[in-house]
Design goal:
Strands 5, 6, 7, 9, 13, 14, 16 and 17 form an eight-stranded mixed β-sheet that branches. Strands 1-2-3-11-10 form a five-stranded mixed β-sheet. The protein has one domain (4-396): Alpha-Beta Complex (tRNA-splicing ligase RtcB), CATH 3.90.1860. It is of the alpha+beta class and 398 residues long. The termini are far apart. It has helices spanning 13-23, 57-60, 77-80, 84-94, 113-126, 137-140, 176-196, 216-251, 334-340, 343-349, 372-378, and strands at residues 4-6, 28-38, 45-51, 54-55, 67-76, 150-156, 166-173, 211-212, 262-269, 271-278, 281-288, 290-292, 298-301, 309-314, 323-325, 354-355, 383-396. Helix 5 (113-126) packs antiparallel against helix 8 (216-251) and helix 7 packs antiparallel against helix 8. It contains eleven helices and 17 strands.
Length: 398
């Protein structure tokens, strides 16, 4: 059994069993369990898995490259306060939200073109056509998605005078439909290999089917994986640029070419794989619902709707493979949340925050998630909070 390091004080029973299943795989050399861990498909959300010689596609998941981007601006609350409703509506006009065709761009924006060209160049370099996974991937670049993905305009609560504190934009999204299809394809491919070579009966769970590094299929998967991670990063960059355009247009009454409101930008994955070295050994590090938190590295840990998010500085805890939690983490299923909460209750929780609230997002009720303050307390050996961001505008897709 590989060594498991727990950074979660009260993990749920199903998550514990799932962590032990993952750690039992012979090529797994360590698992770090984050404070926001909860049961997930393939492996526990909120785990960091160090492997040698193999990767389990389901342990990466289907929301490949999902993560956060945050931007500090030189605007203040006084600047944006008269325009909160206009800003929210403007963001919703500029950025498609939700799933399905209505959650896609109808045409390609000029800002998206160079990003799409970069992804096309990667396709050519890899000798792959990712349109085989999703023919509409180009129209998805610059779209938010649904579920727990969001765009928020925030203020830094650590500042004494909120009227004068810089406005932050924080955004959560990933690789959209193309990433989902890549993850699903390779998870099933690994499971079919397990059946073909009769080792599926030895797996604790079919979702732990793996690809061996010495195989051709492993490297085909890694190329698709890295491409999807890059799509996710560029997708967040594109949406952030559109939010900047909206703020500049609505608040500054000018254009981004004439006036720059950006101070700093932070972009980080929390569903991804990369090679890292620990104690002189190279490992494939799979973070599913976890951020990289090397010493001094700035990263982002979001809360749920109506609760704070954090800009953090990594402490470089090698026992956690230089990682930290990715957010509040769910504590109940979406179905249970829809039955338990009402729109009136959600409206009460979101008082004072400009948002388009409706029954379709009841499953995102803040009480469906763990307490972000408790998560941050349990993460104190992993990261140091730098900014505590409280929402004044919230945008979510269905």
């Amino acid at each position: 059994m590989s060594k498991i390091r727990w950074f979660c004080e009260q993990p749920e029973k199903d998550a514990i069993l799932q962590v032990y299943d993952t750690a039992s795989m012979p090529f797994v050399h360590g698992v770090a369990v984050m404070p926001d861990c909860h049961y997930g498909r393939g492996s526990t959300v909120g785990t960091v898995v160090a492997t040698k010689g193999a990767i389990m596609p389901a342990c990466v998941g289907v929301d490949i490259g999902c993560g956060m981007i945050a931007l500090e601006t030189n605007l203040t609350l006084k600047d944006i306060k008269p325009f909160l409703s206009d800003i929210r509506k403007g963001i919703e006009r500029r950025i498609p939200t939700g799933i399905g065709n209505y959650g896609m761009n109808s045409n390609l924006s000029e800002s998206a073109r160079p990003r799409i060209e970069k992804l096309e160049d990667l396709n050519e370099k890899d000798g792959k056509n990712r349109g085989d996974f999703d023919k509409n991937w180009r129209n998805a670049l610059g779209s938010l998605g649904g579920g727990n993905h969001f765009i928020e305009i925030c203020l830094n609560q650590y500042e004494a005078n909120l009227d004068e504190t810089p406005v932050w934009v924080i955004l959560h999204s990933g690789s959209r439909g193309v990433g989902n299809r890549i993850g699903t394809f390779w998870t099933r491919f690994a499971q079919n290999l397990a059946k073909k070579y009769y080792y599926n009966s030895f797996l604790p769970n079919p979702d732990l089917a793996y690809l061996v590094e010495k195989s051709e299929e492993f490297w085909f998967y890694m190329k698709d994986l890295f491409w999807a991670q890059e799509f996710a990063r560029l997708n967040r960059e594109e949406m952030m640029d559109r939010v900047i355009q909206e703020l500049t247009h609505t608040v500054c009454k000018t254009t981004t070419s004439e006036y720059n409101i950006q101070v700093q930008r932070i972009n980080c994955h929390h569903n991804f794989v990369q090679k890292e070295n620990y104690s002189g050994q190279n490992y494939w590090i799979t973070r599913k619902g976890a951020i990289e938190a090397k010493e001094g590295m700035l990263a982002l840990i979001p809360g749920s709707m109506g609760t704070p998010s954090y800009v953090v500085k990594g402490l470089g805890n090698e026992g956690a493979f230089n990682s930290a939690p990715h957010g509040a983490g769910r504590k109940m299923s979406r179905g249970k949340a829809r039955k338990m909460f009402t729109l009136a209750n959600l409206q009460d929780k979101m008082q004072g925050i400009e948002s388009r609230l409706r029954t379709e997002i009841l499953d995102e009720h803040p009480e469906a998630y763990k307490d972000i303050n408790q998560v941050m307390e349990e993460a104190k050996t992993l990261v140091e909070p730098v900014h505590k961001l409280v929402q004044v505008i919230n945008v979510k897709g269905d």
